[in-house]
Amino acid sequence: SAEYAWWTSAVVYQIYPRSFQDSDGDGIGDLRGILRRVDHLDELGVDVVWFSPLYRSPQDDNGYDISDYQDVDPLFGTLDDLDEVIGALHERGIKVVMDLVVNHTSDEHPWFIESRSTRDSPKRDWYWWRDPRDGFEPGTRGSEPTNWGSFFSGPAWEWDEQTGQHYLHLFSRKQPDLNWENPEVREAVYAMMRWWLDRGVDGFRMDVINLISKDVGPDGALSDAPVASGLYGDATAASANGPRLHEFLQEMHREVFAGRRESLLLVGETPGATVEDAQLFTDPARAELDMVFTFEHMGLDTVDGDRFQHRPLDLRDLKATLTRWQAGLAETGWNSLYWDNHDQPRVVSRFGDDGEHRVASATALATVLHLHRGTPYIYQGEELGMTDAGFTSFDQYRDIESLRYVEEKRAIGEFDDEQLLRALAFGSRDNARTPVQWDASAHAGFTTGEPWIQVNPNHDRINAEDARADPASVFHYYRRLIALRHDDPVVQTGAFTLVWPEDTEVYAFHRAQDGIRLTLVANCSSDTVERDAAELRVEGASVVIANHDDPPQAPSGRLRLRPWECVVYRVE
Ligand code: ISL
């Protein structure tokens, strides 16, 4: 049978260091805090830990604005502390993946300080500097070189008085975009990546890696983009999947990974990528990336992909989207699988039921995800069934994206405060950034000081200590799901077939390989449902995993599923 890469049986755990565990009482998570929780990761059984940025940073975007790629921010500790954490994880057989943020740096990175100092700086061309548009007073609205909007509201160009030009920033003005057209930039990035691999890290999660190649005309010109909604042109259209993207990734592969990539993990974050793009990124023969994060399933409960505008999820859309990605990467390439990360609201609040059926819906959704073909990613707290933040006032929010959104919407008078609070409560990234709930004590055991963002008051009921003591907890269920992926080749690589695409409540699919079939059936609703079990062909099957006691055994007639009940059957 085929040879598969090690990560087909691996599960990755994401740590957002700021919110994981504080050790020194400053209210911000840190490396010595992580050291105290290594046993939690070990007990869970994950194979890889991905760290959101730990590098030196002004923290304008919580570390995704980097001012020194080869040092640790003092907020989190020192390089020695990081070595200790990596050592402790490696000792337990857990690999370490670093976040790689190279579409942009901080404006406080020495490269940018040099670049902005004068027009003749040798590093001027390391970033995107452009003259103001003709016919507009330089530095005023309309003088931006293109109409592109920033992902964090406002224009994607910042006027620099001193040298009389604008610089490009697709994210905040403190995150200027690097110019990947310049070979010196690429060589500097590759050298930095080799330095980390030499230090012992096991791979990279590459932040917005499909934005690095901008669509430049022959004369270096950038053009206006279509205005989909709001004030600005769509910067994704102008910068995602640019003409040299695959060339850059293949070059990176040759310069950084060649000869040492067998045991590495290379995962790209690729907003806007289609499954056809993903086939190219992840085809091993092309030597680019191992897998990418799709965004398509994250937009399904929003209005036109606007993360702040909610509409109810139609389960058929979720099935159709994930199934398209399963099919598209069945022969070549590979999927990554995720519900939660530091940019997304919590799945149990979003697609599940975080009230009465919290445990059942968290475990049912986990089963649906982890039984797909691909590498599952768990975001800190997901394994506890942590819920959205539940914030009700503006001063509770910290995220730059949320704060800028409110500012812009207020400026144009589009929404009143009630509408804005509803938008944030649904879509804010802060929903996933409240501290991990370790126990029921003050601040959930996260810090002895004042947490940088409020702890969810539901930590009195939802916390790791209680979960560890309760065999029916979300935590113990995740342990079983992870063990199942480790042990069962059908979970790892079996062929995927969806059942009942039109069912709006029940998610069901088969995975099959070498004459063995696993069949998952999950009630993704808060009502009891009944279906015709004959269509599942599970008569005489054994139960592999289920999230309720006494699951329906090998039914042949009517299959009755309680709210959010899921079962995986095994047919030999
Ligand atoms: O809409 C988007 C782009 O089309 C955004 O959602 C974008 O994909 C996303 O915000 C990118 O996220 C990553 O890069 C950001 C950082 O703020 C996020 O935390 C990170 O995950 C800038 O580095």
Automatic annotation (TrEMBL):
Gene3D superfamilies in the cross-refs: Glycosidases (3.20.20.80), Golgi alpha-mannosidase II (2.60.40.1180), Oligo-1,6-glucosidase, Domain 2 (3.90.400.10)
One annotated GO biological process: oligosaccharide catabolic process
Transmembrane spans: none
Assigned keywords, A-Z: Glycosidase, Hydrolase
Pfam families recorded: Alpha-amylase
Entry GO MF terms: alpha-amylase activity
Domain Glycosyl hydrolase family 13 catalytic: start-end pairs: 14-433
Family membership: Belongs to the glycosyl hydrolase 13 family.
NCBIfam families per the UniProt record, alphabetical: PRK10933.1
Protein name as it appears in the record: Alpha-amylase
